[in-house]
Amino acid sequence: MLRSLSTAATGMLAQQLNIDVISNNLANVNTSGYKKVRAEFQDLLSQTIKPAGAQIFQGTTQPVGIQIGLGTKPSATMKEFSEGVLKTTGGTFDLAIEGDGFFQVLLDDGSTAYTRDGSFKVDSNGQLTTSDGLIVQPQVAIPIDATEVAVTPDGRVSVLVAGEPAQTEIGALTLTKFPNPSGLSSIGKNLYTETSASGNPIESQPGQDGLGSIQQGFLEGSNVHVVEELINLIQAERAFESNSKLISSSNNLLQILNRMS
Q1: Banded model confidence at residue 3, pLDDT cuts 50, 70, 90
Q2: Has this prediction a pTM greater than 0.85?
Q3: If we measure between CA atoms, which residue out of 92, 88, 160, 163 comes closest to residue 122?
Q4: What ranges do the domains of the chain cover?
């Protein structure tokens, strides 16, 4: 069988994954804190017909060889943690991270997850939670009689209680960063979990140790650029189509050979 059949097939499979990644990016263009993913590829082993450097005669060597590539395969799906555009919402519990870092939330099994989505809510106990009811860490409880809540860029949370002349600080939010955030595992619901590839979490006060600051009344938008993704989609479609035509051409050649035999 012609090598081009299997080689082109690997190209089609690779571009299929590429289109899957692009479609997920576009589907999450309006998801708060979403980070776009980029598919990366590498070539497969090459079949060596004539090795470079082989001895020819009279002590001379072959200056170049003959190698035929056998296709491509996906090597990684790289999540890009560039900052999305901050959108004004005016919501008291809408918090955006300007710079590096993640909010921490407590999962049902007691482990910690991390998110860039700061569209928080307050539950029946006054605790700050995600839209799915996961409690933000460190825990901050908003008094039921609070008439005003303020979050400073360095994470301090203060409230104005009815009948009190001044605000009272009730807690502070911290942020976490990782040596390799692209190594985090995405578990859905805008959440990530730590892996051995991400490194250990480094927790600190916002604005310290390279962490960003917290902006109240804002949400971080997705860092997906629609025009860029559409261009990538066109390129992936054309590459898929080209590999499909290669298979068709190889099939025509096989038909000709069969008729000649």
Answers
A1: confident
A2: yes
A3: 92
A4: 3-81+224-260, 86-220
